[in-house]
Amino acid sequence: MIDPVFVAVAVFAVLIVGLSKAGFLGGLGVVGVPLLALVMPARDAAGMMLPVLLCMDAVAVWMYRKEFDRSILKIMLPGAAVGTLLGWALWAFVSDAVVLLMVGVVTLLFVIDAILPLRKKLEGLPPSKPWGAFWGSIAGFTSFISHTGGPPFQIYVLPKKLPPAVYAGTTSVFFAIVNTAKLIPYFFLGQLSVSNLTHSAMLAPVGIVGVLLGVWLVRRISVKLFYQIAYWLVLLLALYLVWRGVTEVFLT
Predict the structure, then answer these.
(1) Taking the domains of the chain in order of start, what are their residue ranges?
(2) What's the whole-model pTM score?
(3) Segment 30-44, tens digit of pLDDT
């Protein structure tokens, strides 16, 4: 029997991620797995989202195929490969509760950064290759564990102040490559189960619509007020996930 709560949360989460993939909601797509973790195990949420993300990546890369920064990709992708392998190696030693806690902490740091703009302190520093490789590795690791690689990626890329379309295109290509690299590890980890793939197939059209809608909106609508409201709501979600993760990891 279809759970209406699951469907509502899943559709909303995938739509948000789709809009984010198009550059409309910036890094707000980081809430995809945290939202899904409210209605399903965090590991299953990560597995279910991967095929959906790949569908969205394909659309986003096509839409921004002529607008991305190759130099950033050359710096960050090798680090992302290391982070992906590290995530694969540690997957067996990380429980669902730990994954949930990690997702909550990453989301919380992201929201605090968005509210307090700590990143501005980095804008006067010339982004170095080691710095980019480091954040690429963190992005690869957190992306592998919970598809929350956006914040580490942004820490390196945002200070470059790329044109919005180039930023969106660079983000799309980077995570399209990272997500594709996760397919084989996820298969061997059992994350691409029939159940997860069934849900993925149902949600993929929602994600594609989200990307297309985001591309259309990013050139037409100011989202300043939306950000102000959304980030505070995400802050509450992050606090809940951290509380739940801490409770399950340390108090049970």
Answers:
(1) 4-250
(2) 0.83
(3) 778 888 888 888 788
